[in-house]
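Need tokens for this chain, all 284 residues.
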Amino acid sequence: MKSVDTRKASKRKQPYERSKGSNGKFRTTRVVAATKNISASSRSKPIAPLSESEPPAPPAFPNSLVPAREVYLEIFNKAYPTLLPRDDYDIMMLGANRRTGTKEEILAWVDRCMEADIEESGSREAVLESAKQLLDDLVAPTGRKPRPGRDTSHIRPIPNSKYSIRLWPGNPYVNEYCMDIVDTATKQPVNSPFEFDFWIIPDLDTPWLGGPAGCLRSLERNFGIPQHKILPGEEKWVLRDGQSCLIRRPGEKDIRFTVPVRKRRKPPITEEVYILDFPKEDEV
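Here are the structure tokens for all 284 residues:
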């Protein structure tokens, strides 16, 4: 077995480390964060029927599930404040697609989509029923801004700045957490108000284990939306529970933090194995 020179390994410069004379600039690697919902993932697999004596298991994170209709309507009303939906199909299409133009032009686009779906489904009633089923689904959204008085969020001020970092839970079924930047005084979200680079770095407690590292762009930028076209206050970043993060600002000290980890019910051990209970931490 070949030995590893740990002294050389520890001196190897990581891409997120500051180099002398770099003025805080460095090459970035795009990291795309995937967003999912529990209903979409569950429909991709056949569901085995439950016996009468076997009640369905409760959802692991019941407080994170909301009707899809609530999320679609929230997006619909924000994007089209003067438009009233005619039916569930309007809510579904315009809650998932942002269109520009007059009211007549937007509704004409929806009607063309409806005609295409009728050809595929066979009737208008079938299309409306499909839209209703989708909107009645329970989903765990990621990226939805926290609602005052209803959702949990954590806010920490950025040193030498009038802004703060805000974290809030996203979809727990895929361990997603969200981040945005807010005005410290008003708590209102803003879009990238200053020059910075946002990095995912190896775990701070076990950096020797390595792990992915890269410069993370906002969810909107990953979807191809130019920075100047992101709606005011809508920019957000998708992180994962327990990730270590680094914010680089030219002329300022770096900012480092770790994303919270949500508590989970431990699944029962079904394998016939012996469990050795070593301590998680050790004082040497």
